[in-house]
Design brief:
mainly alpha, Growth Hormone, Chain: A, two-stranded antiparallel sheet, globular, MFS_trans_sf, transmembrane helix
Length: 280
């Protein structure tokens, strides 16, 4: 496929008979320079890698949406204090602060010895690790939700929209894993787009990598809308009703974990066939 696309793009730099007769080579819509064609090829090769970041961003969006909904149905009290469910995103920040020095001081030297690369991990490897951690993050959230729903059933709280007596701090692992995934994927993505983009388009490509965040939020909303529409047919409560004790938020988390795993498999394939830009 890549070879076919590249051959098609090569034709943009070929002088046709009509241009040879008229001697007019100034129309950029009919004739491109070899440099322009090669730069476009680089962007085409980068596109699949960029697209896989959208699913990860959809997972990342759960930190401010479904994770908060889940936390509101758990015990948020610590002594006489009540912890807002949304405040647990602090542990994502703590995770980032923790993993940055650990990555630089411990993981990179170990990886450097194993791979022989100055950076330890390549940008593609770093993003792949982040995608794998995102699968673990959603799996952890699903396991906690299964536990919460089982306890709600045992205590007879299924029909009551009240928090289940499980400490909200059991959500910390999923926030911590999400922070680790963020370090590997987002930073690896920025490095990848900066290093691999055409020299004249580095700023644009770096900004393009950030576009995955907004598209990921749209994808998250789309998935939620589809899930709600499909699971509420026939008057059913659905996976995510107003009373989460009657729902199956765990199914939603497993769905995202499955999509993340499929996305990771596609990413691994795209990363293997990706041809790095020659050093300029």
């Amino acid at each position: 496929m890549d070879v076919f696309v590249c051959r098609c793009l090569d034709k943009a730099a070929v002088i046709v008979e009509e241009e040879s007769k008229t001697g007019n080579y100034s129309n950029p819509w009919r004739l491109c320079t070899v440099t322009q064609v090669e730069e476009l090829k680089i962007l085409v090769r980068m596109f699949p890698i960029w697209a896989t970041g959208i699913v990860f961003s959809a997972v990342y969006a759960q930190m401010s949406t479904m994770f908060v909904e889940q936390g509101m149905m758990m015990d948020t009290s610590v002594g006489s204090f009540t912890i807002p469910a949304a405040s647990l995103s602090t542990f994502d920040v703590i995770s980032v602060i923790f993993w940055v020095p650990v990555y630089d001081k411990f993981l990179v030297p170990i990886a450097r010895k194993l791979t022989g690369k100055e950076r330890g991990f390549s940008e593609l490897q770093r993003m792949g690790i982040g995608l794998f951690i995102s699968v673990l993050c959603m799996s952890a959230a699903a396991v906690i939700e299964i536990w919460r729903l089982n306890l709600a059933n045992e205590l007879g709280l299924v029909d009551e929209a009240v928090p289940v007596p499980i400490s909200i701090f059991w959500q910390v692992p999923q926030y911590f894993l999400l922070g680790a995934a963020e370090i590997f994927t987002f930073i690896g993505q920025l490095e990848f787009f900066y290093d691999q983009s055409p020299d004249a388009m580095r700023s644009l490509c770096s900004a393009l990598s950030l576009l995955t965040t907004s598209l990921g939020n749209y994808l998250s909303s789309f998935i939620l809308t589809v899930v709600t529409s499909l699971t509420t047919r026939g008057g059913k409560d659905g996976w995510i009703p107003d009373n989460l004790n009657k729902g199956h938020l765990d199914y939603f988390f497993w769905l995202l974990a499955g999509l993340s795993f499929l996305n990771m498999v596609i990413y691994i394939y795209c990363a293997k066939i990706y041809k790095s830009k020659k050093a300029s």
